[in-house]
């Protein structure tokens, strides 16, 4: 049985989500990301290259040592995989200028990543960072009209 490009790409992205982001497997990160990786939507203050993504992942795990992804669904269109997930974690270290609070947070993310020859080459994504900052008390909740 032949595995399709889409199914192979989905497996690569799931390994990144669960084992790298969720498990802190930095050796696997190097294996999964292409050296010419490009992030079309870097996080605030972040860069667009492979090294910058590793820095982001490590900062997330430092801020939320129990950082755990929950994949809700994945869809693939050829070599591009879109994943909708929720991240969970306890805020123990600096995150976007907010010192650790001990507060448990969760936030949604949608990512699209291209996989070529088994390696992640591009990323587009949005994360609900506004929600995180509200949960941490750094931003006041919106008033209900």
Would you write up a description of this structure?
InterPro entries: Cyclase_SnoaL-like (IPR009959), NTF2-like_dom_sf (IPR032710). The chain is of the alpha+beta class and 145 residues long. It has a single domain (5-135), classed as Nuclear Transport Factor 2, Chain: A. 31% of the residues lie in helices and 34% in strands. It has helices at 5-21, 26-32, 50-63, 129-135, and strands at residues 33-39, 68-77, 80-90, 104-116, 119-127. The protein has a 5-stranded mixed β-sheet with strand order 1-5-4-3-2. β4 (104-116) and β5 form a beta hairpin. The mean pLDDT is 94.
Q: Architecture in CATH?
A: Roll
How many domains is the backbone divided into? 1
- SS strand fraction: 25-35%
Strand order within the widest sheet?
1-5-4-3-2
Radius of gyration using CA atoms only: 16 Å
Q: Topology as H/E string?
A: HHEHEEEEH
Q: Unreliable runs, pLDDT <50, ≥5 residues? A: none
Number of strands: 5
Largest sheet: 5 strands, mixed
**Mean model confidence by pLDDT:** 94
Helical segment count: 4
Query: What is the highest CATH level, the class?
Result: Alpha Beta
Content-based structural category:
alpha+beta
Distance linking N and C termini: 57 Å
Kindly state the percentage of residues in helix. 25-40%
Shape assignment:
globular
What name does CATH use for the topology? Nuclear Transport Factor 2, Chain: A
């Amino acid at each position: 049985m032949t595995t399709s490009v889409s199914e192979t790409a989905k497996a690569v992205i799931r390994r990144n989500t669960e084992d790298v982001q969720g498990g802190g497997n930095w050796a696997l990160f190097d294996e999964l990301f292409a050296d010419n990786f490009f992030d079309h939507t870097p996080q605030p203050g972040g860069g667009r290259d492979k090294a910058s993504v590793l820095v982001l992942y490590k900062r997330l795990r430092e801020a939320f040592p129990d950082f755990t992804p929950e994949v809700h669904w994945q869809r693939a269109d050829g070599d591009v995989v879109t994943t909708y997930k929720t991240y969970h974690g306890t805020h123990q270290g600096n995150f976007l200028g907010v010192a650790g609070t001990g507060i448990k947070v969760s936030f949604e993310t949608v990512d699209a990543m291209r996989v070529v020859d088994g390696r992640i080459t591009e990323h587009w994504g949005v994360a609900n960072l506004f929600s995180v900052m509200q949960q941490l008390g750094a931003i006041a909740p919106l008033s209900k009209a």
